[in-house]
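FIELD: query
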Amino acid sequence: MKPLVSIITPMFNSEAYISETINSVISQTYANWEMFLIDDCSTDKTLQIITPFTNQYPNIKLLKNNTNLGAAISRNRGIEASKGKYITFLDADDLWKPQKLQIQIKFMETNNCDVSYSSYEQIDETGKPLNELIKALPELSYQKYLKSNYIGNLTGMYNAEVLGKIKVPNLQKRQDWALWLLAIKKSGKPAKGIQESLAYYRVRKDSMSSNKINLLKHNYLVYRKGLGFSTLKSVFYMLVFLYEHFFVKSKLVVSINTI
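FIELD: result
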């Protein structure tokens, strides 16, 4: 029996993209998965759109928040409900390639790793390719990962049988970075990167990655609140982050046309 994979997808007013996201899961060549859709009090047609999916597929399950709680708590509700050996995340506007789970599960089982991730590509709001590939580092230690967020959350996966159910710190933004830091630290081993591109990240005008000032502010909060560092230590790591981001991590973004 192939191991069960639990997929966590928080939703809030996700009508524009959610059906495409769910279809990218249904199209997986790996069949043993469960998907938790956690609705954070959407006011658009999100619930109407997902109803046919939850009616047709018993492994697609809806969890509804009674009040708007944010992405971190929504993700944690999915984690709590999950039964899979492996836990992975897919936001309501991102997409997986059909062989994502098959390749990643085989990679984790073969390499006996607790945390894995992969390269991925970027698309715009309409789904048009931006011809940019974000390359995964082959290995990622805790100390290296402290310097910058090298894991695309839509590609990350951890072994819950080994690490337990690691919860997302309750931060407004960048809680995914804090989660993977906790997972790698608990593992005691480097996370391992799959070089093949397995997913599509949608770059939106209001996304964190498009707003550099907000990015820096919330990165600081990962150090200060998510990891409990002192103010001085948090400022130090922010300086390290700036160097790593602009002079090291930037080299992992390559044009697909030049590959």
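FIELD: remark
DSSP finds nine helices and eleven strands in the chain.
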